[in-house]
C-alpha cells in the first residue's frame, strides 16, 4: 500500500467532514465527483414543511438524514429560483432569488450548511438557454427594438402569420411567437413563456457568469446545466443543438466561473454523441465534469418519431448502447449513469416489472447502472422502486403532457391511444409526491398536494423500506457502499460479456488484478448463466436473499461477483 492510500485511509477514519476527505483525494489522484453518488430532488414533490401542498426547501432540510443514510455525496436540486412556474421552475424570472413557494434565501443558505455538516454538497440547476417571459430582461426587451435588453433575446423581423421557418417548440407548436408591437417574432424552443436567450450577445454571457459566481460564493458545489447544448443555436439556419460556437461559449463560461474551483458540472445534452461528450467532459477541466446523454433512454420509441410513439425495448440494443458509452469514454471524458430524472418515466415501470417482481426488477436495474464506471444519479423515489401512475387527464399538471394531449386530439388520435403514451412516457410519472409513510398524502404534506399521490403509497413508502432489510432502499445503500469500497467499480475498465444474449446483461470490470462480474437477468424467465462466468468468483451482492442454484438465474435476478484471491 502506497503512502497516499495510507493517508486517505486515515483521513476517512478520522475526518467526518467529507469536504476535507475529498480535497485530500483531489490533490493526489482524482476529482471528488468521480467517486460520488448524486441524488436528484424535485423540490415541489419531495417534502412539504408548511403544509401548503407544495414541497419546499425546509422540507428538504428536514429529510437530510434520510439522504445521508443512503450514502449520498451531493444533491442536485431542480430549480427553486423565482418563477411563474409555467414549466415548474424551468422558467426563471429571477436567478438570484428563491421562489416564495419554496422558501427564502435564508432557507437556501440553511440547506447548504446543514447538508455540508453531513458531507453533502448542493448542486444547483442552471437554466441558461431561456428565461421566463416574466424575467425583467424580457419585459424590457419587449418594449422596443432600441431597448438595451432587446438584444438579450432572439428576434426576427417578419409578418404576422408568416413564421420565419418551420422550427418546432419542444412543448408543441411553432418555436416562433409574434409580438405585434415590435412587428417581430421571438424564439422559444420550449413554451411560449420561455423565450430563448441570445448567447451571441456578450452582455448576456457576462450577466450569466456574474450570477453563477454569486451562487458559487453562496457555497454551492456544482451545477446541472439545463439543455446546454442548445445555447449555440442558429435558428434561422435550423440549427438548435451543437451549434458552431457551442464549445466556445462553454469554455468561456468555464474559465470565467467554475474553472479552477473543483465543482461538479453536468450538462444536459440530448444531442450528444460520444465524440462530442468527450469534448464536453474533457479531463483538462475546460468544459464540464460530465454530461447526461440520452441515447439509452430513447430506445423505446419508434425511429425518427417522438417519445410518445412507443416501441418495445430491444435489450441487445440497450446493452450495445450502454457499453458503447462505457468504452468510448473510458480514457477520455467521464460518464454520468442514470435511468431516471424528473422528465422520465419510472424505470421499474418502464423496463422492469412494477407488479409481481417490482422489488427484484428495481434492484436489478439499479445493479446494472451502479456496477458501471461513471457518476451515478438517483432520482427521488427511485431508491424505493416508486412506479408510474395512470391518472385521468384532468389530474395531469405537466405543460408538455397537456399540450401533447390537445395536439394529438386535434390531430385525430383516439383518447385511449394518447393516454397509453402518457401513461408510458408522461413526465408527471416522476413528479408525484415522495412516498414517506402510510399517513394521508403519503406523509408528504398534511394538505392535498399540488399533484395526486400515487395510490400505491400504503405499500411503497420510505418508512416501511427503512425498517425492512430486504427493501429496495437498503439495496441501494449496499450498492453505494460497494462503489465506495471497491476501486474496481469506480475506475476499472469495462467489457461486455455475452453480447448477443437477449436476456442477460453481463459485464466484467477489471482494475489491476481485481475482476468484478455483474450478471443481470433482464426478464421474468429463468435463465441459465454459463458456468465459466462465475468460476472461481465469490459473491458480493445478490437481489435475492439466498442462492440455491449457482447457474440458474431467477426472474430479474442480479448478482455481483468478485474474483477470489
Ligand atoms: O429538459 C429538456 C428537454 O428537452 C425535455 O423537455 C425533454 O425533451 C422532454 O421531457 C422529453 O420529451 C429540460 C428540463 O429537464 C425540463 O424539465 C424542462 O422542461 C426543459 O429543459 C426546459 O427547460
Ligand atoms: Ca410548502
Care to describe what's here?
The chain is about 30% helix and about 15% strand. It is an alpha/beta fold and about 575 residues long. The strands form 5 sheets. Strands 11-10-9-5-2-1-13-12 form an 8-stranded parallel β-sheet, covered by helices on one side. Strands 14-15-16-20-18 form a 5-stranded antiparallel β-sheet. A 3-stranded antiparallel β-sheet has the order 6-8-7, with no helix packed on it. 1-O-alpha-D-glucopyranosyl-D-fructose (TEU) binds near residues 90, 127, 226, 307 and 427.
Structural class: alpha/beta
- CATH class of the largest domain, please? Alpha Beta
| Low-confidence region ranges | 1-28
CA-based shape: globular
Main sheet characteristics? 8 strands, parallel
The kinds of small molecule bound in this structure are:
1-O-alpha-D-glucopyranosyl-D-fructose, calcium ion
Give the % helix. Answer: 25-40%
User: What's the gyration radius in Å?
Assistant: 24 Å
Beta-strand residue fraction: 15-25%
Order of adjacent strands in the largest pleated sheet: 11-10-9-5-2-1-13-12
Number of domains: 3
- For the record, give the distance between the C-alpha atoms at the N and C termini, rounded to a whole number: 17 Å
Summed over residues and divided by their number, the pLDDT gives a mean of 94
User: In DSSP terms, counting alpha (H) and pi (I) runs of 4 or more, how many helices?
Assistant: 17
Strand element count = 20
